[in-house]
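Re: weekly structure request thread

Next one in the queue (292 aa):
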Amino acid sequence: MDPFHTLRRRRRVRDVLKTAFGITLTVIVCGLLITVGLARAGVIDLPVGDGGSDSAGPSDEASGPSSPFDGTPAAEFGTFAELKFPKAKATKRFGKNTVADALDTVRDMIEAGRVDWPSKPQKPAAFAKRFAPSQRDDIAEILGGSERLAYVSAILDGRSLVAEPRVTGSISVKEKLTANTVRVLEIRTNLVWAYGFDGPLLAPGDNLLVLNTQQVWQFGREGEVRPEDEGLWPADTGYFAQNIECGHFDDGFLSAYRADPAQYGEGTPSGDDPDAAFDPELDLSKVGDDCH
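Done, posted below.
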């Protein structure tokens, strides 16, 4: 395979979860897997950053970025603790305290899956307890398989992060009437995560993995759904990753692409916007697939 070819793959997996709301809740997983695209002789142009030095090589490591985030949009991202969640406000049918509890549940679930999991993974059944009782077995099954990245950031054994992940994005809350006339509180989280992995830093974007997640969470109104269906429901999940090792992604693990400095040389640009992956509102349906 041409080491200078930009690789990408789109993967769509549908895992239908049983619902008491009378609608089909679907987990949609999209993967954009990009390794390396070179723009001109001697300069690496990773999709997550600009080119490096004119003569990249092992001896130039000291002159490279000081962290995987440097020289990329992720340099402006904050930590999860700094991410602003909306203030709880009552809707027509959901009180302020109910909305606050729902936001806290979603925040706790995301923090456990995206921030804590890389260093302290939980047993699938333990993580699944954050969801409605009727959903827990399905969630635990997903976490035990190759689609675990829909909810948690599992790091490949042998790789490690050099810093706490950074994140940016938007969170919104609204009340919604489903197609089956069930009133739900819906929380949408469009979050872009930047994970800095161990490894040499020769150019901006080296060992930086970008995970773009767009998810919808729903809560049924107490008294209008069965007791076992009260709590957090995953209504829709989409994600893709950039600068990732394809095979490990297929197995449900994150590992930043490890470019070989000896292979830096002339190549062709991918033609993609190198910063597109950092956009929380990116249209995931347009993610391509030519990884293999």
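Residues 13-286 form one domain. Confidence is low (pLDDT under 50) at residues 1-20, 22-61, 264-271.
Next request, please.
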